[in-house]
Amino acid sequence: MKSNILTLLFLLTIFSCSQKDDFTLTSPNGDLQIDIFSKDQRRSISVLYLKDTIFTSAAFGLLVNDYNFGEQVSYKHKEVNDVDETWKAINGKQAEIRNHYREYSFQVAANSNKEKFYKLIFRLYDDGFAYRYDFPHEVIGDSITIQKELTSLDMKGDYTYWAYNGEKHNVGPITRSSEDKKQVRIPMVIQLKNNRFMAIHEADISEFGPFSMNAAAPDQSLVFNTSYSTRKKAFKTSWRSFMLGENIGDLVESNLLENLNEPCKIEDPSWIKPGKSLWDWRVKGYKTEDRYTYQLNTKSHKRFIDFASKNNIQYLLIDADWYGSEFSETSDPTSSIDGVNIEECMAYAADKKVGIILYLNDVGAKKFGLEAVLKQFSEWGAVGVKYGFMKGNAEQKVKHTHEVVALCAKYKLMVDFHDNPIPPNGDSRTWPNLVAREYGHAQADAKKSYFPETAVNTPLINMIAGPLDLTNGWFDLNHAHSREKVFQELPGTVVAEVAKLIVIYSGWMVLPDSPEEYAKKDDLFDCIRQMPAQFDDLKVIDAKIDEYVSIARKSGEDWFIGSLTNREARTLKLDFSFLPENEKYEATIYEDASDSHFLNNKEAYQIRTQLIDSSTQLSITMGAGGGNAIHLKHLKSE
């Protein structure tokens, strides 16, 4: 406490001696520095990270009710606050997360009228920063409208960027100085001239629709594309968030977005349990060797439940149409179609200790009353909801997302959103029952397949935003496209499908294939069977965006490591120095065969074991478009 007080007094002394309205902000260890100053009568900021300039003379401010808060304004220092805390995550990349930052708060007032102002809040972490605008009730008057974001972030030198691209392969790589520059969605990932990385995203999206980034300006600047509506009550914008790292893996490991959100609002979240789930949707039409055909009915659901109960799988997701055509306003989600007996299914699953997740389309939720539907799901015994195809403009989706999550929490239901509807933004800290979003291209979704390069860059771009539902884990790669809900042949190798389950961070690990296909390759499926319901830690061992990625996940004293390559066959050397010294592990290595290929030899694999410790340098080989999965089982000391 004494040290913090001395630090605060020192900072206040600096501010009092500095030029009026010019400020220097620093992160707790000083690695990050932001300067706020006036240049040509406009307010500007510059950002230095590890003594390298990231942004130079960036114009800064808002146009509010026709007043330009980017110039002719005064900054009054309000407060400096150091925070260093640790909180427990229910569905996080790590089980415990440190939240260590220095916060600066300013009042930005118009020189011509001091009653016109807003609060500007910066938070500086050692690995990134964020800022937001706060409009208290005393400045709202009758109403207030943010007409434009005036901020223009001027980059030092050229750079390369990638960005989220919906259910398509991600945008990039694009060189900023090229003719291909464009407006992009978030997260936007930037490789700087010194080969360091930065990701731009936003946190605590609760008021307005998500922003996008304009990388098409004539200079090297980046501009926010925003859409605001009029407000008559106090409000805060989302946090404009910037993650920084020496390599791309640092951005993936970052918890900056979660830390910028409010603490958990659920008084007792002990009922929230992430896990693995079977899924009926893509299995429909699958014919087994005993001549059974999977359909949308309770008999099929019981087959799933039987397999789940015997194989360390916690849930079954019953997807669309179980209560009628999902887009029909006459389909009532408080009842079910002929052949589907939800109450019988729930009772059977409860006896087998398997939870049931029910699909809910936005049409049915709004037609029959969201709360009434969720209450019915809860009374039936459901553990969660997959919510699909939310309608409305961007701001309406933000508000409705919050409504769905809060009501699900009221009825002790976890929730996974299909088809976005807004980006993951760290909000699973506040509402840990929000376990995942489909924020990318899930294999076989959108009636098309994705190729290995998408599998490689998705965890290095999309996953920066938060937990994803991408339904990995296909075993029947050669024939799945003959089913009713699989429309194209699936490229990839079966080992890569196992590796994706480790690489992709998600609250629900949704498995898309049939129990029979998993049973056919039981020795390979054992890697999935051994995976925990929830991991404790995530480390990026090695990665090169668009080329390969290796991620390690911890479970108790064991580790799982997943690696993926693009269309090129590849050999990687894995460094195990992250393991504790003097501890031994038995490594079960699931790998592509020597001739595995993502198009013409997908299901060939081999399994071997060897001892591993922290000094091991292990070479792994992946076929073209393939992968590698390793289970490190801790060996107890004798």
Estimate what percentage of residues fall within beta strands. Answer: 35-45%
Tell me about the biggest sheet? Answer: 10 strands, antiparallel
Radius of gyration: 26 Å
Predict the CATH topology of the domain at 2-259. Answer: Beta-galactosidase, Chain A, domain 5
General shape:
globular
Helicity, in percent? 10-25%
Named CATH architecture of the domain at 2-259: Distorted Sandwich
Q: Which regions are unreliable across 5 or more consecutive residues at pLDDT < 50?
A: 5-19
Structural class category: alpha+beta
Q: Find the count of extended strands (DSSP E, 2+ residues).
A: 36
Indicate the mean pLDDT: 94
N-to-C CA distance: 45 Å
Describe the oligomeric state of these chains in a short phrase.
Answer: single chain
CATH hierarchy class name of the domain at 2-259: Mainly Beta
Number of helices: 12
Written overview of the protein:
The chain is of the alpha+beta class. It contains 12 helices and 36 strands. Helix 4 (298-310) packs parallel to helix 5 and helix 6 (362-368) crosses helix 7 (370-380). It is globular and about 80 Å long.
